[in-house]
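debug: dumping io for the single-chain case to check the tokenizer round-trip. Nothing else runs in this session.
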Amino acid sequence: MSRKSNKLIFSLAATVFALFLISGCSRGGEREELKLYPADQLPEEVQAAPQAVREAYQFAAANPDIIGHIPCYCGCRSIGHNSNYSCYVSSVDEAGNHTFDNHALGCSICVDITQDAMRMTSEGSNVDEIKAFVDATYSKYGLSNMP
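debug: decoded output
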């Protein structure tokens, strides 16, 4: 074999090996399926919002046990919010009907926090780990809305 052929074979083998490593590392283990509120039951203005915002509303409404323990740092404590969940849901009646808050429609910090919680939940993180990450990442924007 010529020197040029050897280089080509080595280069090809190195590329295949690198792709194998990348694909194995990017999975990061099993991902948990996220529980989401039905999109067609969201208010029209939320259904018309960008995908990340819609998904944040869907996740928040379906996961109060997670998002209800995660703070928000956008300054919404001044409007009575006491967790990231309250940026999305004002109330849920006895029949399970949600009244949605429109605050997160115009707040990227709320949505970013929820998107991080979604990612970490799918990776298997628990509420305490998610809260610690949110505190460390978002506290630079202001005070927590949690008492």
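debug: round-trip ok. The chain has a mean pLDDT of 86.
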